[in-house]
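Quick start: what a row looks like.
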Amino acid sequence: MWIEAEARGEKLTLSVGDTGIGISPEEQEAIFDEFHQVAAVSPGSGLGLAITRKLARLQRGDVRVESELRKGSRFLVSLPAPGKPISLRDNRVCGPRLSMAPPA
């Protein structure tokens, strides 16, 4: 397992990777669905990646996976670089239903 961090321009990217069994192309997008579990691999709840992606997107970032079967996987979390504060009062971040702004 390895972890890397890189700041480039206005984006910070954190990478976490391993040399494990990998994730099939068919499963790569599905692993971000709530309660989705890769069959017979882990006893988890299927919430970790879904929550991580939602939190990253609330901060104008994202989470993606790069993986190859029998070679391993790398998860990349991209976020706005430090020094670029994001207000939860901004509807473009949360959307109107999740806005933390006080009622008008």
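That is the whole record. Residues 90-104 have pLDDT under 50 and may be disordered. Residues 48-58 form the longest helix (11 residues).
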